[in-house]
Amino acid sequence: MRITGEVAQRSTCLRRHVGAILVLDKYILATGYNGPPAGIPHCSEVGCLREQMKVPSGERHELCRGLHAEQNAILQAARHGTRIDGATLYATCHPCSLCAKMLINAGIKRVVIRDDYPDQLGKEMLRAAGIPIDVVSL
Predict the structure, then answer these.
(1) C-alpha dihedral, 121 to 95 to 15 to 32, nearest 10°
(2) What digits encode the pLDDT tens for the residues 76-126?
(3) Which of 12, 20, 22, 66 is the most buried (most CB within 10 A)?
(4) Contact 95, 111 (CB under 8 A)
């Protein structure tokens, strides 16, 4: 979980620094942090769209320039041809509903988080898919 916190430090999000790591058989397969797609200006450069639109945390995830840490970890694995089926996700906060859907379809079998996130649907979806969520603190 400490490594996940280090990955989160790479985030350029103005609201929340999130890190995610995909692990299988005690090996780190991929990492991700929240931020815009490659080549797109960072919020630290152009401002936060969500702040400008007054979007509350945990709502309207599509109204953001950035991708979530979990999404970037899945995409990094795909880009490098790394199998993540059966992996555990370690993340600095609970996945949102968008990320929960991706994690379910990617075959993630367990989620370990440090902090909560205000998205009840994400919690319900992971629970319905039978994916255990463990909370650890540092």
Answers:
(1) -150
(2) 999 999 999 999 999 999 999 999 999 999 999 999 999 999 889 999 999
(3) 20
(4) yes
Q: What stretch of H or E contains 20?
A: strand 19-24
Cα 39 to Cα 26: distance, rounded to the nearest angstrom? 33
- Tell me the CB-side half-sphere exposure of residue 13, using CA atoms within 13 A: 23
User: pTM of the full predicted structure?
Assistant: 0.92
Which has the closest alpha carbon to 70: 15, 11, 137?
Answer: 11
Measure the CA dihedral 59/61/62/63, to 10°: 70
pLDDT for 118: 87
* 70 in active site: yes
Question: What is residue 17's predicted lDDT score, i.e. its pLDDT?
Answer: 94
Q: Quick check: 90 and 67 in contact, CB under 8 A?
A: no
Q: Which of 42-46, 61-65, 125-129 is modeled with the greatest confidence?
A: 125-129
Catalytic residue among 51, 59, 62, 70: 70
Contact yes or no for 70/21 (Cβ under 8 A): no
What residues form DSSP beta bridges with 67? 35
